[in-house]
Specification:
- This protein is α+β, with helices and mostly antiparallel strands.
- Helix content is about 20%, strand content about 20%.
- It contains three helices and three strands; from the N terminus they run αααβββ.
- The chain has a three-stranded antiparallel beta sheet with strand order 1-2-3, with helices on one face.
- Strand 2 (about 100-110) and strand 3 form a beta hairpin.
Length: about 130
């Protein structure tokens, strides 16, 4: 299982290389998986031409009920073979916003829980009529 938890360079909250450190460093284990899952949630399906199914189907999720948005998040996270379960998803759609803030709890296959907080891309916050 150790080979499933790869090393990564850390990204800042904007998804850019973390340049606060004086030298390049790596993260591994649960923090690395958390970062990879956050990138997965912030990628629009089809955005990566080499992995067209990677990411969330944002256009289909726009205006959808919270149950549909939660299902799509759960399906996308479970595509990662290091994820055993996604027991909790909290979605907040701020009034007047086109985005949705989410808090997700993920159970890894090694039993470790991780928490992911992120803002989904524009369109997911639109309220269904």
């Amino acid at each position: 299982m150790a080979d499933k938890f790869q090393k990564n360079v850390p990204l800042d909250s904007d998804g850019d290389l973390d340049t606060d450190a004086q030298s390049l460093y790596y993260i591994n284990g649960a923090p690395s998986v958390e970062q990879e899952l956050r990138v997965r949630l912030n990628t629009i399906e089809g955005e990566d031409p080499f992995h067209p199914e990677f990411g969330l189907p944002i256009f289909e999720m726009a205006g959808a009920p919270e149950a549909v948005v939660a299902r799509e998040i759960r399906v996308e996270l479970r595509r990662d073979d290091r994820v055993a379960a996604v027991p909790e998803i909290d979605i907040e759609r701020p009034q007047g916003s086109r985005s949705a803030d989410i808090d997700v709890t993920v159970q890894l296959v090694d039993g470790e829980p991780i928490a992911i907080t992120t803002t989904l891309p524009d369109g997911t916050g639109l309220q269904a009529e």
